Task: inverse folding
DNA sequence: GTGAAAGCGCTAACAG
DNA sequence: CTGTTAGCGCTTTCAC
């Protein structure tokens, strides 16, 4: 309320120059020479008046809203989306862009995705980010084609949009290497049974580490089930019940690991002394609240959010190696988060 | 890209009227009579051209950005913030408003809060929502005074801003009543030890139910500790270790309940047969993944988000019983979510 | 009932 | 190096 805030002409007046000059210096307009002394005067005037540009006028004139849309699946289901938002937010702020977030359903008719994109289009965002809840391939709504876009945590089935995804293989390598370096050689793997990149990537990483350390692969040490707590429990229960049970378990995700904890407890195996466990996802709510804390692999959600916005900005500025970027999704590191669930195996 | 989208003059032309008329009918401008037949023609023209107003021009002209800022604490920490966002989002869409979300730190210098509000101000939002991570009292950044505001999950220390919070007492009543109706009379309460509304409200609800059912209050059945998993475990361990242990536990939150589960397991008490447990917060990641599923009380985050936006809209439209609203925070229901952790006590 | 026209605050030709 | 000026697309006053 109060007094209507200062406009560019107020600044011009106070600095004793024209609005053009003010516009030039405040925007660092290229191909424009303004005396350093004038610039200083203008900037000072702007500051003393507390001048901030009127976004609407700017947008109207430049045809750029300064808004970028983030279409995110299932914002409220896990904190994952939250971290993407955080990363995107921070990067956006860096570039004076505003993030407009729209929640979308995971498995919707595709129709609704269209509508969600439309909502963003109606708000005339300059570009859009599309974030999925888990690493997978997607088909983009057709109306998304109209705008620069970047995919987060998924790849484009058509392969024409830049994408950033977690390095699943690398994450698994970190996890299993940690186990091997702690002295484990019989390492069970409780894997997901969905046909998604994470399933294959984490398995791939598991195999690579075994190979690299000359540990022969034992197919009986790998079992698969839906990646939930209960199936994890059942798988672990079975595998840990064997006479030649593994001394460590690498779990597809923290929920399966949570099930494994329960199985271990029931079998009288203490973690980490009798059994080491490593999870994946680093879901704080689970990993930090288990006893002992679960050593797991973090997904680079925040970093993917940052990368996506940075890429969008480059695209918007026409430094677009768009094709190049879209060609191969960018992989981001999945670092190991050490808590208390891994120890050296006890001698038999 | 493609063709630049239709403007109001295109619509006017196609409908054979002036832009004024188009504006009037599309906005249902009051005190304006346009022949029904003309309205129809205009609307039809708009639809066939796929016309959508240029937000920037609208904003510039009306001095209303159509943006509302949501300042939310710790977006990525729990899904709570996500549900508030969802509710606010849905309500905002209903009113053709766009939500701009800014993450803020929980315990920051107050300085940074100022900056976050400033960021919103710079983006010229029409109003702001301030959402805290847990129910408490806050002091608002001074620069927030400039705009209509509504508090979510907290109350204003100064008492001048409308607020919506969970009905803690009611939630606790629902939880404990459920226990009593299942036949429990010795009900332990593992409470938080912070001086926050939830602590007092949930205790109050606990007492009320006991009173209402003629169960005499036993102070030894209430213990307090920080509301984390480990303290919850320790408290439960102690209380359940007594000879006259309670047959049911009401826990301040799901994390404490998670600790109680562990204590029960260690003591060989099976849930729900030997011990019933009710939590609070309904954190899916925990409650749904425990064995058995935890019966708990849900916080009305989504609903608070909706309420806040609706209230903001009313405020914006000047139907402002602002003072009235601010006077007493609005309480929203905390419904019980039944899973599998409650059963009738077994006869001794 | 309908229309003409004046800006909202800013950017970017273009002129000087 | 700096200033004048014409709109961006829309709402709204005022006249018809």
Result:
């Amino acid at each position: 309320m109060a007094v209507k805030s200062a406009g560019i002409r107020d600044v011009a007046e106070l600095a004793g120059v024209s609005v053009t000059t003010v516009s030039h210096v405040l925007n660092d307009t290229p191909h424009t020479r303004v005396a350093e002394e004038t610039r200083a005067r203008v900037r000072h005037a702007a500051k003393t008046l507390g001048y901030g540009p009127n976004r609407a006028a700017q947008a109207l004139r430049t045809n750029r809203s300064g808004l970028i849309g983030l279409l995110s699946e299932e914002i409220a289901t896990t904190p994952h989306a939250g971290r993407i938002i955080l990363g995107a937010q921070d990067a956006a702020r860096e570039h004076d862009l505003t993030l407009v977030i729209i929640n979308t359903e995971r498995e919707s008719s595709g129709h609704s995705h269209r509508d969600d994109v439309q909502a963003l289009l109606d708000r005339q965002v300059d570009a859009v980010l599309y974030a999925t809840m888990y690493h997978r391939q997607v088909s983009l709504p057709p109306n998304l084609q109209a705008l620069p876009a970047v995919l987060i945590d998924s790849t484009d089935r058509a392969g024409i949009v830049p994408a950033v995804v977690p390095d699943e293989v690398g994450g698994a390598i970190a996890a299993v290497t940690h186990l091997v370096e702690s002295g484990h050689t019989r390492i069970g793997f409780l894997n997901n049974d969905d046909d998604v990149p994470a399933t294959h990537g984490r398995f791939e990483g598991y195999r690579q580490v075994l190979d690299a350390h000359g540990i022969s692969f034992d197919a009986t040490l790998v079992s698969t089930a839906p990646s939930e707590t209960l199936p994890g429990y059942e798988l672990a229960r079975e595998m840990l019940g064997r006479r030649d049970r593994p001394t460590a378990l690498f779990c597809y995700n923290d929920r399966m690991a949570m099930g494994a904890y329960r199985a271990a407890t029931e079998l009288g195996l203490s973690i980490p002394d009798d059994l080491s466990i490593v999870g994946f996802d680093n879901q704080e709510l689970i990993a930090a609240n288990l006893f002992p804390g679960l050593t797991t692999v973090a997904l680079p959600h925040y970093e993917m959010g940052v990368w996506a916005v940075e890429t969008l900005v480059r695209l918007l500025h026409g430094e677009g190696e768009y094709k190049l970027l879209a060609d191969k999704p960018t992989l981001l590191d999945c670092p190991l988060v050490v808590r208390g669930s891994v120890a050296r195996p006890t001698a038999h």
